[in-house]
Design goal:
Radius of gyration: 13 Å
Number of helices: 3
Low-confidence stretches: none
Shape: globular
Strand content: 15-25%
Structural class: alpha+beta
Mean pLDDT: 96
Helix content: 40-55%
Number of strands: 4
Largest sheet: 4 strands, antiparallel
Strand order of the largest sheet: 1-2-4-3
Distance between the termini: 24 Å
C-alpha cells in the first residue's frame, strides 16, 4: 500500500470523520481506556495484525488498561491516507 500525503483540507476534516481522534502535534491521536490489561492487550493484538498487513505501524504505548495511539507517516513527513485508513480500522474495534 502506497502512502499518499493528505492535503491540508483533508487534514482539517479528519477530526469530524474519525470520532475519538484529535490532531496533536501533527499526528492523529487517540487515548483509550479498557476494563483491564487483558482487554487493552487484546485490542492491541487485533490492531497489530491489521497494521502489519497494511505495512503501517502506530506509535503507541500501553499502561495497564490504557492505550495511547499516535499515527503519522514518517515516509511522507506527516499524515497520509494510511493514517486515515488505520484510524478507521481501529475505530471498528472500539
Amino acid at each position: 500500500m502506497a502512502a499518499v500525503p493528505l492535503t491540508p483540507a483533508e487534514i482539517d476534516q479528519l477530526e469530524q470523520q474519525l470520532p475519538g481522534w484529535s490532531l496533536v502535534d501533527g499526528k492523529l491521536h487517540r487515548e483509550l481506556v479498557f476494563a483491564d490489561f487483558n482487554e487493552a492487550f487484546g485490542f492491541m493484538t487485533r490492531v497489530a495484525l491489521i497494521a502489519e498487513a497494511m505495512g503501517h505501524h502506530p506509535e503507541w504505548r500501553n499502561v495497564w488498561n490504557r492505550v495511547v495511539i499516535d499515527l503519522t507517516t514518517h515516509d511522507t513527513g506527516g499524515l497520509s491516507n494510511l493514517d486515515q485508513q488505520l484510524a478507521q480500522r481501529i475505530n471498528a474495534f472500539v
